[in-house]
Each structure stands twice: as structure tokens, then as C-alpha cells.
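ESCALATION

Customer reports they have been waiting on this structure for their group meeting. Please prioritize. Original submission:
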Amino acid sequence: MRDVFPEGAAFPIVGLKGSPSSLKVLNEIAPRFRRVPESEKLCRQLLDRLQFLHDSVAPLDAFDPLKKSYVEVMARFVKLLRRKPLLLRLASSQTLVFVIRELQLKLTDVARRLDLAYKAEMIQWEYQWDNDCAEQYAKLNELVTSATERMLVSEFRGGKKLQEVLMTLNSGMKWKGQSPEMLALKQVTFSRVSGYSNQTGLRMFDWFIPIDDVEDENETIERGRLGDVYRGSWIYHGERSKVVVKRLLPEVSSDLDDAFLRQLELWSSLPDHENILKLYGGSHVSKRQFYVCEYAQYGNLAEFLENEKHSGLYWQLFQQVAKGIKFLHSNKTVHGALKCNNILVGDKCTAKLADFRFCTVHTLATGLGLMTAKAKIKSVRWDPKEVLEELDESGPRHESDIYSLGMCMIEAKTHMIPFGMDDDEEVFGKILSGQRHERPEGLSDAEWDFISRLCDPDLSRRPTLKEVLDEIETFAAKEAAEMRLADFSMSRPQIVSHSSNDTPKPTKQTQQSSVCSSCTESSDDSQQSCRCCGFPLKMSDGNITRHSFATYVKSHTKDEVLQRLYDVALTLQDIREQGIVHANVIPGNIRIGRDGCAQLVGFEFSKTLDELASGAVPKREDGVRYLAPECLSGKNPSFESDVYSLAMCAVYALSREPPWGLLTTDEESKLQILSLHAIPDKPAVVSDAEWKLVKRMCTYGPADRMIIADVVCCLARLVSSASPEVPGWRLEPDLVKYQEADGALISRTPLVSRHLAQWKDAVVAVVKPEEGFFTMGRSFHSVADLWYSLKHPAIQQLYGAYDEKGMVFVCENAERGEMSSHLGSNLTDSDVWKVLLDAALALHYMHCRGIVHGDIGLHNILVTADGRGKLSGFFLSSQQDGAHPRQCSPEDEPTTEEEWRPLACSRGHHADYSSDVYWLGRCIIDAIGGELMPSKEIPSASAKCARCSMGQLPSQPESFTVEEWRLVSDMCQGDIEMREVADRLARIAAVNAVVSSRLKNISTSLPSDARQKTQGMMFAKLRQYEEEDMKRQQSDDYDDYLDCDEDCNSNAQTINSIEQHLAYAANEMFGGDNFVTALVEYDSKTWNISAVPPTHLKTPSVTWRKCLYRWALDHESIVEIKADEISQGGFATVWLGKWFGAPVALKRLSKRDQGQSLREEANLWFRVRHPHIVGLFDLSW
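Update from on-call: job pushed to the front of the queue and completed.
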């Protein structure tokens, strides 16, 4: 039944995230006007009309065209009000005016058909239109002219985004019909911003299209390896045209902008031709590069010819394709990516070529060798041997297009991609070995002979393009004649005669069976999936079969099978936390990955809870043996039904037979479940403990079943009792080589000695416990477990350890040794602060993990060859109460309750987070003051607790600035968390680096306290910028409906970097001639630096749950991403960023990649540790 609402009632607004109610949306629109204050009156008029029409539209049927138009207007209006920087609002101001007027006219049409068009509330907007547009300019002029260049520029995350906005502003200056005042404002602003940001030489292109001028339809019409194709519309000089938009995937939209730019310039430079798709323009600087071309209403060639009534146009269309190729070749252009998806059919059934040479963009953007890239991309099926064999980047030739044309003919005739279901690697090998495609049905000998010559592996034997056109012309003429004859025959009366004695003779049906390629059991050919394991019967992919769960079960022990069931349970737990019901947990949807772990696939039936609540799910006809009773009764799947299905998978895996056995039919098993509330009999090979778990998972009532978290815990116990895990850190002692008898001694402390050694052909540090370690009551295994679990750029990485031939820890080598050896020597002030910052970031990471270091001192802060700090010395580290427990080695069962407890001082206090903060503050005093305070000795029972050791701090030393000493005072005498320490240290280190470099370049005489004063001035500027940004953001929040915001693909947090603010501050302070005067007159009170800046780092929750992957840490909120990517691969983009405040590389995979593939890669990568291999710190998916 269709939804009909009473007058005045709310109804859902489809098109906005979550389909919120109309009344809720109407109430929330007005507060969004603060995002576009210059256009408030224009928007207010539209909102008033929406409110006026609401009650009249509400009673209409949900599918009524008037109601659908009203809902569309409201959804587009909300998306129009998303947050945008001021400079972008100026650049796209005319587009906003056009869209609002367009929405107003749509509402006028709705009102006219409701007989409300002449109401005063509906016509008021037209009288106010010109005045409201004039006010838009007046407010924009006020806002833009009063904003500094820094404020205009600082709203953008990276130079690439700023370039895009400047191009948008340049395009906005060409808008026809705008007022001379608006044009002048755009021109002046363009000059201001481009000069300030050093973008005066930025190239401008006539074909550039701002992204806000293009609107996509919600649904893609094609998904390719390069990107997604949408139907859409394009606003150009006050008119909207239907177009096709292709947005490249993020991994193709690389920093190789020149590659994409060359293709756009090439395409736009070609003269118009009827068989070439017309390019309107695009953008090479957008986050996802895109181009806009003419709309081809009949889609791609393969889809067009699948329609039987078009099959008679086969050769005539390929004749047009060949003409298009001839035109490209005559313009010295090779298509290079010819396949049916890139041949579109437009008006009057005209074939049009598209996407030529865009394969070059993909090849360049992959960052892989050409052979590897070709093996991975789908176009390998259309590429000839010579293209796949080339090792340079010369690209395809004219003869290559001839080959691809023949493969397109095969594709169009078979209605399948070339080589069918063979995987890409097999196809790659076939083409290189010279194998030809099988002959499709429906081709005459002459036609197949012609196509075979086009696809000859030897390019010298392929026909020329002229010969191709001549032969196709012959086939096309014959085809056209046959169509005319068929049309003539169809127009004549048809006489059909038959005898009255004729009776229909039914064809005898022979029931055939198919053998499952996974478990080798037979099933009816009419079934889609195997009745035993649920594997798809039509699946022919040998690679999938080799890694199927059914194959694994037959060749591995029960203990190993239990481990794989544990993997699946963890995956179900993970998707449950995301609110997703799998709804198809069967053995056929369990795969074994390269890392040996089980992967859960087959998410085509999966639904979120919201989707399940909104309506019924289609009834399943297959996999009956694995469906829960409530699903067999027609109810929707649930988390509980997933648990039931997992139990049935366990029955199959442990007994190697499907639930209820092979002799019981699906109908019989269904009857026993629903009528008798029965469960399968206990297999003989299943233990009592295992069967008890299965029974609790498959009770008839969903409410009585175990939840998946409890299943995970029970399976964990079964797995751990069956196969104890060897610690990941255990090394072979013989792999560690010493140059001397006891290794080259680096340093020695009361707890450990450090030596140089070699391990797997790499220089490493070897740490050996000393006598002091054994007096502290800690075990070797507990230290190894804790240290091995720590992975952070500022922590000395542990590669492994052994205790067979002495106790040895093999770890990362810090070439410049302990920081204590550098006091007053070869480290500059800025270098010292950088090392101290690294130590603080490492401590922040440990505290987020719930770990107290317990031995902070300059002897445990190491310095690498490039001047970075590494925190070491985890022999007294301990887990805080309430933090998640670590996974420990099996032999490391604590011998006493005291073994993992923090050390206690004589007055009863324990070392905790605050003691780490205190001792780091003492380290700063020692490092900056240039000499050690009397506390370097090994921490004893009476000296380590911060609260017990705390005394009166000395007065501020001359080597400290006001800001630096304030931080040290807070650390040693106040209650301050490590996240704030790390954030303030980061600011101090960054400011000191800028101050040092700038003061070096000043030749005039400076006061003795120039560094302190300059730092104070810099901090005051930073505070000023932060207050300006804060005021701007307080009245401007993000859209609640995030589906319209391009920056919402990632869960990572992005913030303005302090480096950007420092660059602005340095330009303002050092750019003029008055710096020295300002320095002399400086007074810290007038510069107001007393306020403590806001902390950007966040401390995540340390709540813990069992998880298969040790790298799966939930710390998305503390990841920062810088705007411009630094590298591009075939499957991912690499960005510079920060993780727990430390500089890292962030690798973001394509959205289309399956999460399981990502987890599989991470599971392999995380376990690999070596000095010459880039380490994986963390991953979220």
C-alpha cells in the first residue's frame, strides 16, 4: 500500500540521509542560513514557500508527481546549504542564484497545479528577487573585503584545493549577465588571493568546469576500473543541459595531474565529429577528477545490442565505430582503451567513441610496472600482445586499436566480456602465448574470418584501417538489405495453418545434476547453490575453489577448523558492531585467505538494522539447512539468525557433512526444524564441550540464543586449549651476529646494556638485562610481550627476543645513542625540542593504550641519525587498572599477583600516568638547562613516585622562554594529561624551528633575548589566528546530512595544521621592515600569550574486546590528514599525516576494495618486522 499522510502531517524526504521527516527538515533549514549569510533573503523566500505548500502536499500519494517534485526541491535545497568557504561562495554565487530560481519555478509549477499559484505567499518572491540578488552582492562585498588574505586562504586544506577554487573564481568571472560590481569584486579578489598564495602563474583553461556547476543523479549507470559514470546536468551561462559525468576513482585521481590534464587538452582540441563523443570540459584539480561530455541516451554499445530489436544494426554500428577510429588516427591520436563500455550510442542510433587515451592516465597513476598494472586492470581482455609486452610507456599503436575493435565485436556478439569467466591473470597468459578467442555463435564463416584477422596476435598481419572499413561496409550493406526485407515481410499478413488433430507434444524433461566444485557433492542442476555447503554451482573460478572452506575442511585438522570458525565469529562480531546483519552465513561464503585466516564473503543479502526495520526482505529459497527457524517462517534475518547459521556451519565443518546429513532432503529438514523444534544429531567427532556450544547457538527461540560476543569468548577458549600460540616475538638466536665477542657496547644503565649487532643483514641494537633488572621482580616474557605490542614511529621498535642463550632483545638501532650524551653538545635547541616532542608523542600513545612507562629519563630517550627521538626502556612499564589486557605469551602466566603491578613507593603511591608526565618534565629541565638534576640513578622504591618526589621548582632559567617554562611547571606541579603535554610541545617545537631559521637570515644586530621575544610574538599570532578561526566556526557547522559533502568518505579527522598558521605568522612578522623595532618594543603583557591553546590531540577510549587482528585499534578520531597526497598506487593513495601526533604516511585504499582484502594485507604486513621494511602501525576499515 502506498503511503498517504493526513493534511499537515510529516512525510519522509527521500534523497536526504535517513529520509528525515519533512517537518523536521523545515525546522532545521533556517539555522543553516548562517552558512550563506549573503544569500539569506534568497533562501528565506524559498523556505517560506515550502512551508506554505507543505500542508497541501502532505495528503498526496507518495508517488504523486507533485509530491515527488516538492520532496526533490526540499532535498536539493538542503544540500545547497552545505558549509562552504567564503571564497568558494563568492566564486559560485551565480550558480547558487540560478539553482534557487530553478527551485522557485519548480514550486510555482506545483502551486499552479494545486490552484495556489496566485496566493500572495506564492508570488511575493518574484517582486523581491532583484532586491535580494543585489543584497547578495552587498553582503559578499562586505564579507570579502573585510577578510584578510590569510583568512580567505586558510579555509582550504592544501594548495590543490586552493587552485581549484581560484579556477572556479576565474570561471565565475565569465558568467554572462552578472552585474559589473560583482564581476569587479571577483576580479579584485582573484588578484588578492593569487598574489598572496603565490598562484599568479596558475594556468587557466576554457574547458574548466567547477564541480558545483555539475549535478549527478544518485545512481551510477556504469562502474569501471577508472571511475563511475553518472547521468547528470551541467549549468552553463544560465542554462542547464543533460550530460554524462565520469568521476575518476580516488586512486586514479592522483598527484599526476599533468597526465589527466593532457588527456583533457587532447580531447578538447579535437574538432567535432559525429562518431566522437563531445567533451564539454572537466576538472583536473578536484578531489575526484572528472569530465563532462554529451549525453548518449542509449547507453553503451553492448547494452544496446543486447536488445533483440537492435541486433540488426550490428555491422552498421561497427561501421560508425571504425569511422570514429579513422578520425582519431587522422588526428594523430590512438584510442588505446577501446571496449564496448567506451562506445556509446546516442541520438539516431549513432555510435560515439569516448574515453580514448584515458587508459594512459590509469597506467601512469598506478605507480606499478607496466606488466603488473596490465595484469590487474580489466582492459587486459581487449589489449593485444604487443601492448602487454611493452616495458616502456610508449602506449598503444594504431594496430592496437584494430585488435581491440575485433575484441569489441566478439564482446557485442557474445554479450560477455572477452574470454568470459577466465580470471585476468589467465587471460593475460593466454594473450601473451598467442591463444585466440573461441568463435562465438551467430557469425558466418566470412564474418569470423574477418574478426580473426583483426585479432591476429601478430600486428603485421592485421588489416589496415582502410581495409577494415571496406569489409565492414560490405557486411553493413548486406545487413541493411536483410533488415529491409524483414520489415517488408513483417508488414504482410501471416497465414498459419495446422491440423485440428495436432496436439502439443511436451518435451520430456530430464533431471540433471551438477557437482559442486567446492565440496564435490551432487545437487540438482536447477538449484543455484550446493545443498551441502551452499557454494554457487555456476561458479567456475578455480582460484576461489582452491580457497573454499569446504576444501579446507577436508584437508585440515579439527583444531585448525575451529580456529577458522573463530575467525568467522570475530568477523560477525565486527559487522554486528556496525549494525549489519550478514543474513547468508553458509560454508560457501567462507574463504581462506593468503594469510590462512577465514574470510566471510557473500554480503549481497546483508542489511543494516534500519533497512530491516523499514520492510520485509525477499524470502530465500536456497541454503535452507543453514537458515534459522524464524527465517524459514518468513521473518527477517537478525543478529540472532546469524549466530544460528554459524552454528550450522560449525556442524558442517566439524562433521564434514551438511546439517541433517546428505540423506535428508531440504524439505524434511525444514519440517523437523519448524514442527519439532529439532536440531541435527550430534556428530560422533564432536566433543561434548563443542556440542554444548552448538546447542546454545541454535536454540529455537532467538531470544534464548547466545550473542556473538559470547560465542567469540567460548570459541577462543576452545581454540586456545587446542593450539597454544607461540609468541610472535620469539627469534632464532643463531640469526643474531656480533662483530665482537660481546658485541660493540653502546651504553650501559643499571637495568640494561645496549650493543650493536647484525640480524638478517641489517644493523640492529641488542639489549641485554643487567643485574638491576632482576631485582625488580619482572619476567623476561612479560617485558617482551609488552614491548612487542607497542608500535609507534617514536618508540624503539622491538623486532624480537629470545632467552635460550641468554636474555636478548633485538630492536631498532638509534645511531646517535642516548640523549643524555648530547647535552650541551651537537644538538641545537630546535633539535632538542624535536626529540623531546617525539618522546612525548610516544608517551601519549602508551597512555592511550593504558600503559605506564615507569622509567622516563634521558637515558631512555634515544636519538636517530636524522635527529628524531625514540622512547625506549620498557622494563618497568606496567598496565593501568581498567585498561585492556595485553595478549601475552602462553608461558608468561604471572607467577605472583605483584608481577604486572606498577612499582609502589614507600609511601604507598603507585607509578601512574602523572608520574610519567612529571619525569618527562624533569627531562626537559635537564635537556634545555644543559645539565642533569640529581635524580639520574635507577628509580628506587622511595624515589620514583611523582607525588612523593615533588618539590619546589627552581626559578625560571635563562635558557627557557615564558611558554616553555609554563609547560614544565604544569608538568611538574600541576595535573596535566599527556595529550595536552604533547600538543603544547608540538607547538613549541614548531615555533622554535621557524624562529631559529628566520633569525639566522637577519643580518642586523638583535637583542640578546631575541629568541624569547620572537617566540612570544609568534605564540601571540597563533592565538590570534585560532580565535579568528574559532569565531568563524562557532556560527558555522557541518551539514547533518553528510551525503552531500565530498570530504566525508573518511572517518579520519582533518584539522588545520600548525605549520600553515606559522607560515602566515612568519610572513606577517618578518615580511616588513619593522620587525627589529617591534622586537625592541616587545612587551609580553601587551601581546597576551597567557591563554593556554586548545588541545587538538584526543585521548581515545581504551575499552577492549577480543579481536582477530592485533593492528585493529579504534583510534580514528586522532588521525589527521593533510590535504595533498604524496604518492599514488594502483590500489591506494598515500598521504602525509599524523597518527597519535607523530608524522606518518597514511595509505587509503579504493572505496571499492573489499574490507576483507584490506584486512588480509594488514594481517600479513603487521607481522613483518625488519629495519628495511616499512612498518604498519595501525589500520581502520
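Sent to customer with the following note: The first strand starts at residue 214 and ends at 223.
Escalation resolved.
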